[in-house]
Write a sequence for this structure.
């Protein structure tokens, strides 16, 4: 299949290209779209056949449900049963990087929700995504636009690498601002249960909800027979080609370890900007300053992709804190590392 590529910026939306892409969505095709978190692989959320094409293009297990993207919070009414807490969260965080799990209505086929009777709803703030949803006149179901198991795409180049020839069109809207997928919450009474951490932090949710709980699968490795609240949490994710080891310890001790590792083994290092002058520049990636979690979030997935083109035996990265945006970094990295943590004394 020939994949058409359209280029635009949020400041200068190409109305003609949006119209063409909306026609593709309406006729059951697939369009990759930029969002403020990561690129999504979009299709008509009410069309079971179109959703099936998403699973095929990604190689995604069919029990892993999709997020549906809407143009305005109240559009959720058409697809799901909302609640006062949904609207409180919407008022605080939508449009933006928050996904809320709600009981679904019949208009959403079970092929979109992996057979669940709930649906994940998100209203993205990215102007290009917003324009396409509006022009399509329907919610757009979109998982991250990567091949299943590889890091989520944060640039059109990543999408092209994974999806060229497999989908109808890609909208190149530049680099994604946040770089990690949305925060996902499930609502129980006045409690929000965080199923996946993202840029909307637990503290931020706590300003709106009476109680915030963090699902065990966010930080822990689930046992063989345990079922996560979010099906996606059971799959190995973002696995780079070489094994990834996360380092935990005092800053100086970890820096010393990295310097020694470079002379001892064939390794790649995802290091802080502060460490770059200490290291020789073979196979090192600057992920941002130690305290700059926003930059680390923006660079993580492209850094993991970059390591795939380095022939190394092992990759080292820092174990992030679990505070604020750190929890989202922690969650993605421990899964990329299959929970391999090395303590440095
Ligand atoms: O930022 C994002 O959320 C991006 C952009 C494109 O919007 N999308 C994204 O989708 O990350 P995806 O499919 O890669 O991840 C969706 C996650 C999966 O872990 C899935 O299991 C979970 O959401 N999910 C979807 N529907 C669910 C439901 N009804 N109940 C529980 N978890 C659900
Ligand atoms: Mg994904």
């Amino acid at each position: 299949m020939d994949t058409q590529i359209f280029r635009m910026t949020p400041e200068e939306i190409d109305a003609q290209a949006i119209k063409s892409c909306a026609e593709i969505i309406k006729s059951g095709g697939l369009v990759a779209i930029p969002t403020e978190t990561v690129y999504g692989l979009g299709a008509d959320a009410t069309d079971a056949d179109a959703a099936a094409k998403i699973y095929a293009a990604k190689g995604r297990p069919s029990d892993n449900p999709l997020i549906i993207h809407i143009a305005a919070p109240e559009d959720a009414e058409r697809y799901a049963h909302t609640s006062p807490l949904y609207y409180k969260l919407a008022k605080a965080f939508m449009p933006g990087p928050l996904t809320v799990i709600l009981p679904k209505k019949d208009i959403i086929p079970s092929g979109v929700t992996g057979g669940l009777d709930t649906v994940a709803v998100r209203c993205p703030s990215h102007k290009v995504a917003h324009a396409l949803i509006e022009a399509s006149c329907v919610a757009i179901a979109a998982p991250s636009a990567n091949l299943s198991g590889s890091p989520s795409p944060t640039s059109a180049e990543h999408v092209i690498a994974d999806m060229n020839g497999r989908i109808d069109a890609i909208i190149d809207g530049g680099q994604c601002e946040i770089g990690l997928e949305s925060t996902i919450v499930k609502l129980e009474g006045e409690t929000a249960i965080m199923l996946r951490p993202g840029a909307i932090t637990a503290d931020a949710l706590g300003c709106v909800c009476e109680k915030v709980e963090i699902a065990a699968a966010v930080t822990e490795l689930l046992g063989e027979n345990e079922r996560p609240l979010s099906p996606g949490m059971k799959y190995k994710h973002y696995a780079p080609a070489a094994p990834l080891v996360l380092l935990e310890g005092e800053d100086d001790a970890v820096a010393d370890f990295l310097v020694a590792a470079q002379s001892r083994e064939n390794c790649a290092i995802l290091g802080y900007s502060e460490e770059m002058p200490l290291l020789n520049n073979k196979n090192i990636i600057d992920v941002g300053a130690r305290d700059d979690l926003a930059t680390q979030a923006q660079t993580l997935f492209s850094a993991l992709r970059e390591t795939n083109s380095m022939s190394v035996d092992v990759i080292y990265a820092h174990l992030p804190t679990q505070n604020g945006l750190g929890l989202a970094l922690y969650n993605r990295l421990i899964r990329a590392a299959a929970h391999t943590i090395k303590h440095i004394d």
Remarks:
- Residues 35, 37-38, 40, 64-67, 99, 101, 113, 116, 118-120, 122, 142-144, 181-182, 184, 195, 230-232 surround threonylcarbamoyladenylate (ligand 1) (CB under 6 Å).
- The chain has two domains: 4-218, 244-344.
- The chain has a mean pLDDT of 96.
